[in-house]
Amino acid sequence: MKALFGFVSAGGGRIVQRKKSLAVFFFFSALFSLSAQVELALHGSVETLFALPFSKDLNLTDSRAAFTGEVSAYAGQASAFVSLSAAYNGLSPERTGFSLEEAWADWSAGGFFLRLGRQFLSWGAADGLILTDVVCPQNLTAYAGLDFAGSRLAVDGLKLHYSFPAFAAEAVWLPLFTPARLPENSQNPLYGIFYPSSIDMGGTALPVSVSGAAPPRTIADGEYGLRLSWYAPALDVSVMVFYGWNDLPFMEKSLILSEASPPVPAGLALRPEYGRTVTAGADASVPLGDFLLRLEAAWTGGGRYDRSAEETAAAFSAGRGDGPVKKHNLKLLAGLDWNPSGWTLSAQYYEDLLPDAYSGGTARPWRKSALTLRAGRGFFRETLNISARCFLDLQDFDTAAGVSADYALTDALSLSLGSDFFSGGIENRGTYGAYKDLNCLWIKGLFRF
User: Fold this and answer.
1) What is the pTM of this model?
2) Does residue 31 contact residue 80 with C-beta atoms inside 8 Å?
3) Each residue of 423-436: b (16+ CB within 10 Å) or e?
4) Pairing relation of β-strands 265-273 and 204-210?
5) CATH at residue 394
6) What are phi and psi of 24, to 5 degrees?
7) 20 to 30 A Cα–Cα from 137, which one of 70, 176, 266, 317?
8) Which domain holds residue 382?
9) pLDDT digit string (tens) for 222-276?
10) For residue 130, which of 9, 283, 274, 237 has the smallest C-alpha distance?
11) Which of 73, 69, 133, 136 is closest to 106 using CA atoms?
């Protein structure tokens, strides 16, 4: 469930610093190039979140506080924006400190719009699922529950947008690859989901050691994308292509042998790696009276998937290491939105296929399908908003569900209360079964100024 997780490489400190320096350079270069007629606007927020799990084995699922400051500058057809965050994370000390969230400058003339720097980019029409929205990776070193939008990472690059009356084109270039992030601290409740302490190999539990990942670091390893959109009274259509890297690392596996004679397996070494991928897709929105029909499809080439347990065991028996297998991936989605009497209701049907893995060869099944449901409504002139959502896997019937209520105490201060639930389904085989210890009650406070 990619919407829940991201990745931090142990050796990625230098590339992070380079990317921060690049984003700050873009921002201040743009500021100094503006005319003397500059208008400034200052905004910010303070947010706290605490999540208390229902499991007796855990103290807190999440505990964090963050201050975010934002500066916007405007001068004619040019503008710039920077967002800085200072955060304290009680469960992930590596995420405590200062960070540069966004830093960009843009310029517009006629139908052209150019933005340079660290920014968020959103493509596609799916709600909480990733099909064509592959530009921004995930940042889930801290628990994000079912909040897909809140787990996104900004990327460093250039966006060029051009709009006609009924057509738009958008090209992006990301010179430095931004991987998704996973927790580094073993005390984090999410750590064990991605880095298990042991793996069963033929009835023997082998301890696992994980080496640091080495994400691509040069401009030659950059990512590129193009999206074209058409707008009509009864139909909106977009097509896209993105040439990049898999955001989440795949694992190269090798046996660690003992010093005994003859040597016997003593452990399993995992080495995170990245590979090139290309994604092509399309999405459409069609009004149908009081309903809105959303369609989306994406094909990805170069994806990596774990081999079957039998193939892994055979590779180790032959004295070879084991890595993932490349497979093409096809994702399809149909969604329907309805807004009766102030309610917002949404349902989506989702298919995730590995067409060339029908006869086996991968650990995951060749077909996965899911159903998502969402309902929400505002009360008391939208000062109280209540929502509920559910993800249901239709193979193993594992689920992820959540309910929440957000109340605006004032225009600047709001308080949210919610709960998230995960179930493993049949024999705990499903994707969400690994998260069952994260069932929790959470509370969040937000003050904006």
Assistant:
1) 0.85
2) yes
3) bbbeeeebbbbbbb
4) parallel
5) 2.40.160.10
6) -65, -40
7) 70
8) 2-448
9) 999 999 999 998 899 999 999 999 998 888 888 887 777 777 777 888 888 899 9
10) 283
11) 73
